[in-house]
Automatic annotation (TrEMBL), chain A:
SMART domains: AAA. It comes from the Bacteria. This is Zinc transport system ATP-binding protein. Residues 5-220 form the ABC transporter domain. Keywords: ATP-binding, Cell membrane, Ion transport, Membrane, Nucleotide-binding, Translocase, Transport, Zinc, Zinc transport. It comes from Rhodobacter maris. GO terms for biological process: response to zinc ion; zinc ion transport. One of its GO terms (molecular function) is ATP binding. Residues 235-267 are annotated as: Disordered.
Automatic annotation (TrEMBL), chain B:
Belongs to the ABC-3 integral membrane protein family. It is found in: Cell membrane. It comes from Rhodobacter maris. The chain crosses the membrane at residues 21-42, 104-123, 143-161, 186-217, 229-249, 255-273. It holds the Pfam family ABC-3. This is High-affinity zinc uptake system membrane protein ZnuB. The keyword DNA-binding does not apply. Gene3D superfamilies: ABC transporter involved in vitamin B12 uptake, BtuC (1.10.3470.10). Involved in the high-affinity zinc uptake transport system. The keyword Transmembrane applies. Its main location: membrane.
Length: 267, 277
């Protein structure tokens, strides 16, 4: 099947720092893929490079021609000098009619917010407005950078439910960065663990049923977080005492998330 | 200015409306504010105030070049303003401290322009007209250039309004939507150079940025949307032109600075009418 976006041997540098190296990644139509990883692991950099906001130092990124991307950035600063209501913002870059705008706002859980200035929204409201705008652009792929930050628990659950709905209705692919690992497990087709490179990737359902996963971490959400912390709160340079060999950074890690689709070698 | 104002007390025979220097001045100023309203709004939204200054100051060098090479004045100012604007646009985003770079370029261009002008016989005397403008000396040909230039700027901005606004809200959102924020920057750079070239005769190189920023800042206080702010800025600009010309006539003050002073007064009033958000 054709990929919407494909990265081959992608590396990204920020100055002298290598933020991402040797990443092979592809996302297909209708797929929900979540990128997880510790702070500074290059999650945002990866999705920004896939969109084309960051230049590849090596390798390349290919987007299918005419691909419509609905991007929800992690943060968006609106200059105080620019008066902009929610309604006007939804009409960028293409104008939409009032009915469509209100429908999108209702759908993302913030009906009737149209007349509010963008600068006066709470974090959670702003996030929903960003998503509403992205949906209005009729995207082939939604790209969301930590979309649930600023949302409470029910808001987060509703959000992932909405993502699934959108995918089912429009067939759009979804690529997101997330910290809500317990929800990720339920809502994603594929999980990519990133730490400067792709540590492992695979289908979460296969993974969560794996005996290693049950044995090591139990079944609750606490288990998922424990897994997450174990997998990622480490440093490949400074070993934190669980037997890291720098030449074989994965040797100390079991790979319960290593799914059947994962083709790269683990040392 | 004084010389011309003395003339005004002894009106000559008029054949058409355009023969009246005061009408021409008002038309020139209002024509310019059609462009400075929306463009000035972008300057405020994108925090390009110093960028406007650098471009405007460079125009003095353009004046010197135009006289030195025997080119038409507008061609000289437009060329140098455009060169400066493109230089600044190219330098931005390359890791330079922008306010320092702009500070160097803006004042270097102004100083160079003044030095170059001193080599041109006959220009030194008239230089103040280009520093502070000489709106009362606007000719019919000037009017045509001003309205032509301002019309071009307005057309350019209106044509690409949605794209320019998207890139101004956030360049990354624009890029993710398949637009090129570099093109938006180029359009605004071009519009700025054009505006500077036609404005130099009206308010002069030192005050062009003021005419861009002050009306837009005043309009911001009540505006709920970008379009109302742009229109409001044009309105404030036009009122400033009318008020400044009236004050200039009444108190025998230089016209360009009087226009900017009225704009500043309107800005102060707008602060009292501020709407939150």
């Amino acid at each position: 099947m054709n990929s919407l976006i494909k990265a081959e041997n992608l590396s990204v540098r920020h100055g002298d720092t290598v933020v991402l190296s040797g990443v092979d990644f592809a996302i297909r139509k209708g797929e929900i893929v979540t990128v997880v990883g510790p702070n500074g692991s290059g999650k945002s950099t990866l999705i920004r490079a896939l969109i084309g906001l960051e230049a590849a130092a090596t390798g390349r990124v290919t987007r299918s021609p005419g691909l419509a991307i609905g991007y929800v950035p992690q943060k968006l600063h609106i200059d105080a000098g620019l008066p902009l209501t929610v309604r006007r913002f939804l009409s960028l870059p293409r104008r939409v009619c009032d009915a469509a705008a209100e429908a999108a706002l209702t759908r993302t859980g913030v009906p009737g917010l149209g007349t509010r200035p963008l600068a006066r929204l709470s974090g959670g409201q702003f996030q929903r407005v960003l998503l509403a705008r992205a949906l209005l652009t009729r995207p082939d792929i939604l790209i969301l950078d930590e979309p649930t930050q600023g949302l409470d628990q029910p808001g987060t659950a509703a959000f992932y439910h909405l993502i699934e709905e959108v995918r089912a209705e429009t067939g759009a692919a979804v690529l997101m960065v997330s910290h809500d690992l317990h929800v990720v497990m339920a809502a994603s087709d594929r999980v990519v663990c990133l730490n400067g490179h792709i540590c492992c990737e695979g289908a979460p359902k296969v993974v969560s049923a794996a005996p290693e996963y049950r044995a090591l971490f139990g079944l609750g959400t606490g288990g998922a977080f424990a897994l997450y912390r174990h997998m990622h709160d480490h440093d490949h340079e400074a070993d934190e005492g669980h037997g890291h060999d720098p030449s074989a950074p994965h040797a100390a890690h079991p790979h319960p998330l290593h799914g059947p689709n994962c083709t790269h070698d683990h040392v | 200015m004084r010389r011309i104002l003395t003339l005004s007390t002894a009106p000559t025979a008029r054949t058409t409306m355009f023969d009246d220097f005061l009408i021409r001045a008002a038309l020139a100023g209002i024509g310019l504010t059609l462009a400075t309203g929306p463009l000035g709004s972008f300057v405020v939204w994108r925090r390009m105030a110093y960028f406007g200054d650098a471009t405007a100051h460079a125009a003095i060098l353009g004046v010197a070049l135009a006289f030195g090479l025997g080119m038409p004045l507008y061609a000289g100012t437009l060329t140098v303003a455009l060169a400066m604007a493109l230089t600044v646009a190219a330098l931005s985003g390359r890791g330079h401290a922008m306010d320092t770079v702009l500070g160097v370029l803006a004042h270097a261009a102004l100083a160079l322009g003044l030095v170059a002008a001193s080599f041109i016989p006959g220009l030194r005397v008239d230089l103040s007209a280009f520093l502070f403008g000489d709106i009362l000396a606007v000719s019919r040909a000037d009017l045509a250039v001003i309205w032509g230039g301002a019309g071009l700027v307005v057309a350019l901005l209106a044509w690409r309004w949605q794209e320019l606004l998207t890139a101004t809200v956030n360049e990354e959102l624009a890029q993710a939507s398949g637009q090129d924020p570099g093109r938006a920057r180029l359009i605004l750079t071009l519009a700025l150079a054009l505006t500077v070239a036609v404005a130099i005769k009206i308010v002069g190189a030192l005050l062009i940025a003021a005419l861009l920023i002050i009306p837009a800042a005043a309009a911001r206080q009540r505006a709920r949307g970008p379009e109302t702010m742009a229109l409001g800025a044009t309105l404030v600009g036009a009122v400033s032109v009318a008020g400044g010309l009236a004050a200039s006539l009444r108190f025998d003050t230089p016209a360009g600075p009087s226009i900017v002073a009225v704009a500043a007064l309107l800005f102060t009033v707008s602060l009292a009418l501020r709407r939150r958000g």
